[in-house]
């Protein structure tokens, strides 16, 4: 598909650009989301407190269980230097996938502007284009300034993006990006935000999540209406897409890219690490924002339910998305207050210094 040294990757796009002359048409809920999207833009330069230091060996501040090879016989033989390297590369891999995923979201959102039939959805999607550009910028800056190592895109993520973009049907970028990839990213952001010991990483994740909540709401609004109208054959095609993508997400080999890159294993074979249980819990949690959303948009059919039962995530359908997103909003505002308090404290110190 692509090599790690390629500077670009091109995917053939199918489908049509659609104009809408009905400028007055619009779903009130979509238009209010559009207003919110315009209203809530922010700039990393001003909102993120880049003065906050990060631990150069551990910029993501993750517990050991999240470090590649943790708990394996190899791990037991490693010295502190190798462990620090694994920790740094684990962070680099994780944030690199966020970075490439954000660029994928940027491209999918601009695709939606072109292909979605309604003017209300086009307007909203345009605000998402800017959101995803800002997210790409932030993850890129964090990786360059605080991590110093960047990984190429994971093959499973690349395949998912490829499937999403090559399809000519206008709803597929919504389903692939807004529901599945964004759902996965949102869950991963949330887990890391709640686990990290590093304030800068927590701040970035909390702020990005605040925007992502709107993107998921957008996908749900648009697809819920559309999937009510489609026929049985069209529905079955969407089910196939969801089922295949979810298996691929479950099977993505967490950390193997890192283990191979550092020379611990030669091939991307399934991992033989003993902390599989922790990994499985993490993998399961990644479905927490996808499963309830798939139910919500009306693809909750016998086949989809059977697949989720097989993956072991069927019960996640009951996750309260509204409550999760309200918490995301609160945590972002909490970060704003903490930053304001820090800035005020520094200001006071400077004033006191000037007086003395
Ligand atoms: Fe994003
Ligand atoms: Fe997004």
UniProtKB/TrEMBL annotation:
InterPro entries: AurF/CmlI (IPR025859), Ferritin-like_SF (IPR009078), RNR-like (IPR012348). GO terms for molecular function: oxidoreductase activity. It holds the Pfam family AurF. This is Aminobenzoate oxygenase. It comes from Actinomadura rayongensis. The lineage of its organism: Bacteria, Bacillati, Actinomycetota, Actinomycetes, Streptosporangiales.
């Amino acid at each position: 598909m692509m090599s790690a040294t390629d500077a670009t990757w091109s995917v053939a796009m199918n489908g049509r650009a659609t104009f809408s002359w009905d400028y007055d048409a619009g779903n009130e809920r979509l238009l209010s989301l559009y207003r919110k999207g315009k209203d809530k833009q922010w700039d990393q330069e001003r909102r993120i407190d880049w003065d906050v230091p990060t631990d150069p060996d551990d910029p993501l501040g993750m517990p050991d269980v999240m470090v590649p090879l943790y708990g394996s016989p190899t791990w037991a033989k490693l010295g502190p230097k190798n462990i620090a390297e694994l920790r740094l590369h684990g962070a680099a891999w994780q944030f690199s996938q966020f970075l490439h995923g954000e660029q994928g979201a940027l491209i999918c959102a601009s695709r939606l502007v072109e292909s979605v039939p309604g003017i209300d959805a086009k307007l909203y999607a345009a605000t998402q284009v800017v959101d995803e550009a800002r997210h790409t910028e932030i993850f890129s800056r964090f990786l360059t300034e605080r991590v110093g190592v960047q990984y190429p895109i994971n093959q499973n993520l690349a395949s998912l993006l490829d499937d999403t973009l090559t399809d000519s049907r206008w709803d597929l970028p919504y389903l692939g990006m807004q529901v599945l990839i964004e759902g996965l990213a949102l869950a991963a952001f949330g887990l890391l935000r709640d686990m990290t010991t590093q304030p800068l990483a927590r701040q970035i994740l909390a702020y990005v999540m605040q925007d992502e909540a709107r993107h998921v709401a957008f996908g749900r609004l648009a697809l819920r209406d559309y999937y009510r109208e489609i026929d049985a054959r069209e529905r079955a095609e969407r089910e196939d897409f969801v089922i295949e993508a979810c298996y691929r997400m479950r099977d993505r080999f967490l950390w193997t890219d890192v283990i191979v890159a550092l020379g611990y294993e030669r091939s991307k074979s399934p991992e033989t690490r003993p902390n599989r249980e922790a990994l499985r819990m993490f993998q399961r949690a990644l479905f927490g924002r996808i499963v309830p959303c798939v139910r919500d948009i009306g693809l909750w059919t016998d086949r989809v339910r059977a697949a989720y039962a097989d993956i072991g995530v069927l019960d996640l359908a009951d996750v309260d998305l509204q409550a999760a997103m309200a918490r995301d909003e609160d945590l972002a505002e909490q970060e704003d207050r903490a930053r304001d308090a820090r800035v005020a404290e520094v200001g006071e110190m400077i004033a006191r210094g000037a007086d003395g």
